[in-house]
Amino acid sequence: MKEDGTLFPSSSRLAEINSMENQDTKPKIECKGLWKIFGPNPTKIVNDWDDYKDLSKTELVKKTSCVVGVRNINLSVRTGEIFVIMGLSGSGKSTLLRCINLLHKPTAGSVVIDGEDITKLSTASLRNLRRQKIGMVFQHFALLPHRRVIDNVAYGLEVRGIDKNKRYEKAREMLELVGLQGWERQFPHELSGGMQQRVGLARALATNPEILLMDEAFSALDPLIRRQMQDEFIRLLKVVNKTIVFVTHDLHEALRIATKIAIMRAGVVEQIGTPAEIVLNPKTTYVAEFVKDLPKAKFVTAGDIMEPAEKWTMPVNSTVDQIINKMDIEGLWYAYVVDEHQRIKGVIDYRNLSNGNGKLREDMIEGSYPSKSQQTFLEELIKMAAKTSIPIAITDDSNRLVGVVTRERLLSTLSS
Amino acid sequence: MNQVTFPVRIPVGHWAEIAITWLTDNFESAFDGVSKAVNLLLVNIDHFFNWVPWPIMIAVISGIGWLLAGKRTAIFTAISLFLLGSFNLWPEGMSTLALVTTSVFISVVLGLPLGILAAKNNKFDLFLRPILDGMQTIPSFVYLIPAIMLFGIGNVPGVMATVVFSLPPMVRLTNLGIRQVDAEVVEAGMAFGSTPWQLLMKIQLPLALPAIMTGVNQTVMMALSMVVVAAMIGAGGLGYKILYSIQRVNLAVGVEAGLGILFIAMVLDRILQGITKHQEKAIFKEQ
Predict the structure, then answer these.
(1) How far is it, in rounded angstroms, from Cα B25 to Cα B17?
(2) Which residues of chain B make contact with A145, given a CB cutoff of 8 A?
(3) Is B22 touching A (CB cutoff 8 A)?
(4) Which chain A residue has the Cα nearest residue B280?
(5) Smallest Cα–Cα separation from B231: which of B257, B252, B249, B269?
(6) Confidence tier at A77 by pLDDT (50, 70, 90)
(7) Is B190 in Cβ contact with A103 (below 8 Å)?
(8) A387 — phi, psi (to 5°)?
(9) Does residue A284 have a pLDDT over 50?
(10) Distance from C-alpha of B48 to C-alpha of B50, rounded to nearest angstrom
(11) Could you give the C-alpha distances from A84 to A49, A81, A251, in angstroms and in order?
(12) Mind listing the pLDDT tens digit for each residue in B24-78?
């Protein structure tokens, strides 16, 4: 349990997430036209929403005694995704989360898990779904104070009727996974906040659910521990492959762990997108306001802002004239020479090219050039751009040119 | 003085009489059965308490006090009970203890499920609330009359009247205790797929236990405060001694019997509070 102090995930972690992102997987969880209204006669509000839509929250309460939890939510979460629902308090994010395992019964719409509308399940089937497919972690841990750590972790298995030895064995395994071996016999109040939430996590994982719902799971922890828990959570996710729905009010946390973020306000989703999409292209003024002060350099990657490679690409067998011609048209000072597999041979400087009809000579190609992978954060790129005026080559694993980031591009991204 | 005339006379009292008479006429055997069962319970407990030699009784109760509430309570218990005996009131004290034990037992057996139902169902809670208010606020003398009509004279109607008076705190505090359980913990229970019964037995009742024990404590105190009233319809024990002292204007007996009730009340209260504190400590140590 060491504190490594890094604020943001390693690029390898992001690479993994991004590659997961690109797989075309079926939706694991879908919310379709989901409404949750609290109060008497809620369906009337849903059906006659047009009559109420101009009322403020207080006016609505006065007139109908109803409060809108979430309104007409449509979203889908794919297998293996870390889907973060972000919003301030009262935005309906926790309500939405609780609709996914029907702790709140939706007023209208459906929640579909693995293609099955769970709002239509019988009580017994819903119970089985909760016992086997969905785990949940709570903001204030929600451990059972009268039970020892091991009995807390084993709770989900206990209600399923699994015998004591088996459930203890599984619970021990989970405690080891979260780094709490040796604490089995303690009571929750004897543990620190961070450790209690590990118990909460172990409890949620013990039933081996496919879906993990996390309700502000790290919000009640102090900042250092919170960061440490986020790191460990990310590490843990490599071991256990789960679909995560994570609720938070902390945008940094959201950007840190999410593969997809839904930003909520007053019961509706304002925008759904990848962290970079949210930071770079906020769709509403609300989201824009939210991300305004973010250090983009820490959340945006080279892949998000790079320009397409063709403009900068010169085949290795081109003539000098051809190259000069293209660079004139595109207005380039530098260009990358690539072989037939798009692998970089080197960079050429417009000023070093002498006119002539000859082939490109080896001495015109400079072998050292700045290059980074797509998952590199802008932070790194800035450091590199400060040292060289050559546009940075963005390459894949086999040194193929996939894009280019120029200083101008970098600066305009950071200043927008 | 003028006779005040109202346009109508609503004879509620008469209706109540008719209802009780109807009950006694038609359900005599049922009330007889209840009466016999309660009497059996009471008589056996009474016999047992009076059969155990006093030194052993004092040792056992003090021992229980030691286990549940610590050394100081144990010493306090031993001294109090010894004083009770030294007033020459040991058999009466034990009878009163038996009466209280029986009443509290019945109150808990009835009150716990009622409290659970009230906690789980808001409508039932709303329905129950005015009834509980009535049970606590209508002067206990008033329901001595139907108690006599239904159960006759003696210890049983005394127990029944005591139950009516001491049941409300049990129901109320069970209800409150369950409702006070942290909502997130209850949600956790449901999120992991507990059945309602599992939720109740594994989460709600254990966490409501301190409140429930406070309810038991209240019930015991209420029951003790009823012993004199119950004596008016034939219940024995220290209550009867006090009634006797009032009728004879015998201050000496009155003081001694009064102190006797006080000792029993304090002993039971300290021991029960010890249990409650014990549990609160175990459950909520972080606070």
Answers:
(1) 12
(2) 185, 207, 283-284
(3) no
(4) A146
(5) B257
(6) very high
(7) yes
(8) -95, -20
(9) yes
(10) 5
(11) 27, 9, 10
(12) 888 888 888 888 899 899 999 999 999 999 999 999 999 999 988 888 999 999 9
Judged against a pLDDT cut of 50, whether residue A12 lies above it is answered with no
Instruction: Search chain B and give the residue with CA nearest A213.
Output: B191
Using CA atoms, how far apart are residues A304 and A314, in angstroms rounded to an integer?
23
Q: Is the pLDDT of residue A83 over 90?
A: yes
- CA–CA distance, B173 with B146 (Å, rounded to integer): 27
Sign of the Cα torsion A339, A345, A348, A354 reads negative
Strand-pair partners of A136: A213
Nearest CA to CA, how far is B62 from chain A (Å)?
Answer: 28
Looking at the predicted complex, does its ipTM rise above 0.85?
no
User: Which chain A residues are Cβ-neighbours of B192 within 8 angstroms?
Assistant: 130-131, 135-136, 155-156, 159, 203, 207
pLDDT at residue number A9: 43
CB nearest B283 (choices: A145, A156, A158): A145
* Strand order from edge to edge, sheet including A67-78: A67-78, A27-38, A108-113, A116-117
Distance CA A296, CA A304 (A): 11
pLDDT confidence tier of residue A5, bands split at 50, 70 and 90: very low
Q: What are phi and psi of A402, to 5 degrees?
A: -110, -15
Residue A194 has a pLDDT of 86
> CATH for B28-283?
1.10.3720.10
Mean pLDDT for A206-211 is 91
Q: Could you tell me if A257 and A217 are in contact, meaning their C-beta atoms sit under 8 angstroms apart?
A: no
- How far is it between the farthest Cα atoms of chain A? 87
Name the amino acid, one letter, at A52: Y
The distance of A238 to chain B (nearest Cα, Å) reads 24
Contact across the interface for A136 and B207, Cβ inside 8 Å:
no
Task: Inspect the interface and report whether the beta carbons of A146 and B182 lie closer than 8 Å.
Answer: no
Closest CA in chain B for residue A137: B188
The structure tokens listed for A23 are: 């797989």
- List pLDDT tens digits, range A96-150: 999 999 999 999 999 999 989 999 999 999 999 999 999 999 999 899 998 999 9
Task: Give all domains of chain A, ordered by start, each with its CATH number.
Answer: 11-24+77-102+122-296 (3.40.50.300), 304-415 (3.10.580.10)
Label the pairing between strands A268-273 and A307-308.
unpaired
pLDDT tens digits along B183-236: 999 999 999 999 999 999 999 999 999 899 999 999 999 899 888 888 888 888
First to last CA, chain B: 65
Give the residue on A whose Cα is nearest the Cα of B204. A144
Helix (H) or strand (E) holding B268: helix B251-283
